[in-house]
């Protein structure tokens, strides 16, 4: 239980630490009812086996449902767990037959891109997260740091070991998906602010005042980012980050018609 408490406890202190890509990420829109079933999950954090098992259960559940199906991933595919590289490889492939899959960007994903493009900030990034991610690509960052490797050497190792296509995949990810009155984002939204004026940084990083106040717009927000042991239900919001790297539980939220449930 210790690792879970270590993971859950410090969330209030997490803030952006690296300069991000200033290019605004895409936002996607679909009509309500366009998919017969929608499956959403968040904060995989390097837990490849759990991700594969979740997809297996989704396919099993959806086999009884006619019509198009959608899987929505709500961000944070890297850090904490052991297999970030395998998670990115899996998500960059085509989805299961009969499904569309949209992969949104989380704050940890954006920070990995920043590290790759600006590796001189390696120590700040390691203070935030990331050691497990580098290990998943075969990078012994502790050895590099102990050997007093300079930033240029570390940058070269990172670029040699992390495939450029994984970084390009993360750079391409949208930051929001709206389906009628249901909104999928990684972290939440700035309460009361029109969706067109929401900043990428808010959508990927916000906690308060969103967690207490909700969106204060006519939408239901499905989000991750803030870990809890079970899904959380707040004002016009449902949080589905159940800290899989600490608890082993990867929550899948389902939307079938007007019914919202947990797979």
Automatic annotation (TrEMBL):
Ranges for domain Calcineurin-like phosphoesterase: 38-236
SUPFAM superfamilies linked to this entry: Metallo-dependent phosphatases (SSF56300)
Pfam families linked to this entry: Metallophos
Superkingdom as given in the UniProt entry: Bacteria
Protein name: Metallophosphoesterase
Lineage per the UniProt record: Bacteria, Pseudomonadati, Pseudomonadota, Alphaproteobacteria, Hyphomicrobiales
